[in-house]
Specification:
The complex is a heterodimer of chains A (112) and B (110). By secondary structure, chain A is mainly β. Helix content of chain A is 0%, strand content 52%. Classes of the chains: A mainly beta (112), B mainly beta (110).
């Protein structure tokens, strides 16, 4: 199993550009989530999904969209990038909400 | 809301030494996850403790949950450079939303 994969590993955007961070898992996990990690702020939940077709907002959802059309994929879309979205983004998945989550390697995003 | 405080915030130890990291909750701790993160990498799941008094070990890392004290401790025996990284705790429950402590940064000097 590849586990949780994320692409790209690094990305530089200009303010106002849009892009999609990809996340995929091959463990048939129902629960998937996106976090951002910032110095001094720790990891904060952006959006999560308890299954295909179901998504919900986390702690810091503004400026981000998600969809879950398949069990395997959970892309995160930045609609109009802002410097405040410069961060490291992690995708995670778990068998269900009550189980441990497995994290991808992260995407380091810089918005200039 | 539940908050977790980890201590110490950072730790430098000589290779071969033992060390302990603590995670204290502001509310009842029914269960806890321990994760480790190396710089520039994702989080690695270490173990989950699900009830008071439970103790689990993985290689040279042992974690215990003290429900009465609302605290968990993570103990590393005979530390190695491979143990270096950031250790994070998060309570179970919260319907899958992981709320982490601020982390403990461990450096192991060869």
């Amino acid at each position: 199993n590849a586990g949780v994969t994320q692409t790209p590993k690094f990305q530089v955007l200009k303010t106002g550009q849009s892009m999609t961070l990809q996340c995929a898992q091959d463990m048939n996990h129902e629960y998937m989530s996106w976090y951002r990690q910032d110095p001094g702020m720790g990891l904060r939940l952006i959006h999560y999904s308890v299954g295909a077709g179901i998504t919900d907002q986390g702690e810091v959802p503004n400026g981000y969209n998600v969809s879950r059309s398949t069990t395997e994929d959970f892309p995160l879309r930045l609609l109009s990038a802002a410097p405040s979205q410069t961060s490291v983004y992690f995708c995670a998945s778990s068998y269900s909400q009550g189980h441990e989550q497995y994290f991808g390697p992260g995407t380091r995003l810089t918005v200039t | 809301s539940q908050e977790l405080e980890q201590s110490p915030q950072s730790l430098i130890v000589q290779e071969g030494k033992n060390l302990t990291i603590n995670c204290t909750s502001s509310k009842t701790l029914y269960g806890l996850y321990w994760y480790k993160q190396k710089y520039g990498e994702g989080l690695i799941f270490l173990m989950m403790l699900q009830k008071g008094g439970e103790e689990k070990s993985h290689e040279k890392i042992t974690a215990k949950l003290d429900e009465k004290k609302q605290q968990s401790s993570l103990h590393i025996t005979a530390s190695q450079p491979s143990h270096a990284g950031i250790y994070l705790c998060a309570p179970t429950g919260n319907t899958g939303k992981l709320i982490f402590g601020q982390g403990t940064t461990l450096q192991v000097k060869p």
